[in-house]
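Researcher: Next entry in the queue.
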Amino acid sequence: MFKKNEEYKQYDLFDLTFLLSDKQNNLLSNSIEHSFLVNIFSRINENDFKELYSNKKSRPNVPVNQLVGSLILKHLFNWTYNDLFRNLNFNILTRYAIGINSIEENVFSEATIFNFQNKIINHYVNTGQDLLTEVFDHLTAEQLVEFNIKADIQRGDSFLMGSNIFDYTRLQLLIEVLLRLYRSVEETDKAALIDIIRDYTKQTSGQYIYKIEKENLPKEIEKLANIYHKIHLFLVERYSEKSAFMIFNRVYQEHFVIVENKVEVIPSNELNSSILMSPDDQDATYRYKRSTGNKGSKGFSGHVSETANPKNDFNLITDIAVVPNNVDDAKILETRLPIMVDKTPTLNEYHSDGGYGSPKVDEIMEKESIIQIQNAIRGRKAFASFVIKEREPNEYWVSCEYGQIVKAQKATKGKKAKRHKAVFDYYTCMSCPLSSKCRAKASGEKINRPIRTWYFSKEKIRLHKRQQNINLIPKERKKIRANCEATIKEVKRGVKNGKVRIRGINRAIAYLSLTSIAVNLTRIHKYYEKNHRIICQNNGNHLNIHIIVDFILHNNCSKLIKVKLERFFKPLINNMA
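Model: Structure for this entry, 577 residues:
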């Protein structure tokens, strides 16, 4: 049964904060845990998680804000689960951060937080509603307003999130999937299959391939092709709905093909990046990226956007996304832009690298009146480039590197009717040193009216406009995107050797949501620490007043609490005045 947790709002005279010394209270009030209590924990909307629990009268749930808050703290300090529960049980600051002010109060068990995360994932699979990302969006929306963060200028970048899986070779993956299927079938079927796969059951997949010479690998895979085919025919009717067989069937379809009633191995260079990387993570995909060195990454791509207006005291992450790592950056931005505009309607300038440009992105940017600023443009630089400028609506002028400037005309014939064309003087072009490398094509020689013409489409107009955007902004804003690298480093705090400590895209989304909340809190706390540090008075009780008043200002505490506060501290308040 769902029940909101509001007990943390009821201060007791014997709470832990009243037993601390002046120095301890001073450290507490200026700690990041206090910032967490005020800016995160007390603002978690527990009602969003109500659907995870039964409507029947039963034992109340463990407080949702404590569960979500604990997960955020885990990512804030990059703890393991063992670290988290050690601190929840024995660290006063950690307990204070999630509203526990009594040393005698017990916290929930490890099984509770694991079950809670599974409920969130199952809810997402069944409904498409991502509750943890909603927490991030809700908190960020409040923080943007409270700290007057301008979101009109933003920047974004992506990074690889390797799944916490074993790096199987092709042969080892085929054997591992086969062994897992064998272990999952009924005993009678095991007896029928043992003669076919006996060689593989005597050892692990890793031990088996260790003895295989490199030149024998193709023969081993061909041998497995026939085994897969036989087992598939034998089990498909009775096991098609079983998870182990579904993984086996996927691998069978991805690695082998039937040609003239004979099973053949698909060549390695024809395998796509979406094939199964591991039976432990069916969502992971493969991507090779130069920045990772000579190694590819098996997992996902995370994408982060944040505010970047130079006038902001600090910036906040505003949008996050996790996708298969073989999805192009431009495709990510194409999907996220409408969502970003919905969350931050003032957005009108977005800084990215060259990978985020595409005709579809240009179209959305134009529709939403957003200027895209790129530090590097994808593709090779033309030997003889053109510049398109729109002087009036639908009036385009084209200039070449040699200095010719002509007004573009609307093409009228054939397949090029929907395009524009720039007609250059033929004789001027012939004297140009770049003439042989120019994309403008010569025509009309036969009728003694030679010209050189370059055709361009609406997509090309948008591309040229995007390429010129960086020249339209002040110098101090031209390198804004570079600072996004620091943000990527912050959100990768849980990435070790290119991998995060989770598997599956749903858990990767949760990881990025919780980490982004933690990053935003860190920035808020640094700002608060620098500009609003509480000055401790000689009397420790004065500091307790500051802590409680600060807490009440950020929460809808009852009138009774306020009355009790005034009654108990009235003499001290008068002395302070």
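Model: The chain has four domains: 7-129+537-576, 131-162+301-375+479-531, 170-270, 386-468.
Researcher: Noted, moving on.
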